[in-house]
Design a protein that fits this description.
This protein is an alpha/beta fold. It has two domains: 2-149, no CATH class; 181-276 and 293-331, no CATH class. It has ten helices and 16 strands. A hairpin with an 8-residue loop joins β4 (80-86) and β5. α2 (41-54) crosses α9 and α8 crosses α10 (293-299). It is elongated. The two termini are 36 Å apart.
Length: 361
Amino acid sequence: MKIDLTDTTSSKINAALMDARRAGGSTAAGMVLTLVIVTDEGSAYDALKAANDASREHPSRTLAVIKRAGRSPRARAETKLDAEILAGTDAGSGETVILRMHGELVAHAQSVVLPLLLPDAPVVVWWPENAPQHPAQDPLGAIAQRRITDAVTAESPVGQLAQRAASYTPGDTDLAWTRITGWRSMLAAALDQRPVEITSAVVEGESYNPSVELLGLWLTTRLHIPVERVVTGGPGITSVTLRTKGGDIVLDRPDGLMGTLSMPGAPDRQVALKRRETSELIAEELRRLDPDDIYAAAVRTPVERLREPAAETASHAPVIEAAVAAPARVTAKVSAKAPDPAKKAVAKKAPAKRATKKAGS
């Protein structure tokens, strides 16, 4: 079912939602959260498709906020709200409201969104692109328990990590972090099977990919070891090597589909490491609404930015420095408790380059 409302109000939208629910034969909401998507017309279709797919696992009310301020003074003076309501099969397992705000209403989006939130239900805000510098201080971000950004869509994806570290507030997360869940799980499982002393690590992946950097930072914070960063052609992360005195533990995925786990004294094993769609990433983030302390520790770790390949004179790639001057060699599992994160991340700005891929790492 689709309902179009022109020059409307939040109360009229709520009434239309109730009418749509009754027409579908149910007066109960049955939804577990409100997902607010702050986007533009160009990205709205893909974001809504991902949210609808994720709603099959997490029935939710999805509010898509599209701000259209207008280009001329006359257009900016025309303040109005248009809404498009999708219910039933058109909205996955929940309800979808597309809010198009015009004129001065753009600066007061929270006043429109607040009356449309599900009562006594968590609120999650997702910026598919153009996330604010301080998500928790954004008027819409301030009403949410969880705030989701995506560094890969920034002009400088790797440099965006420094901004995420400086503005981190409990409840923040980034899809660049969600994309490495499979890698972290496989590496943790490998060390659970073979608890050995890890002396160093090598993370290989394409340039300007924040997920590659976050994986290296995670290994640094968890194992207190130096991590070498090698640039490859991708896609995404291509290989991780954990160096031990008894041989290397290697997780290799050259094609973005299947990975190979190699361990000393054991046959190679094929593992599933397919690059995931945005809907799967959002569904994972909606499974837990508490602060992610492991992400906080990783993103706040200082990192030396990559040099351009032409500027490298050594035969090896630059090293991601640990926060300590001389990292001790420890026998540890990746699943050990994270140390307290640093108060502030210090990072150099990476060369600006727009990301062209949004697929998972």
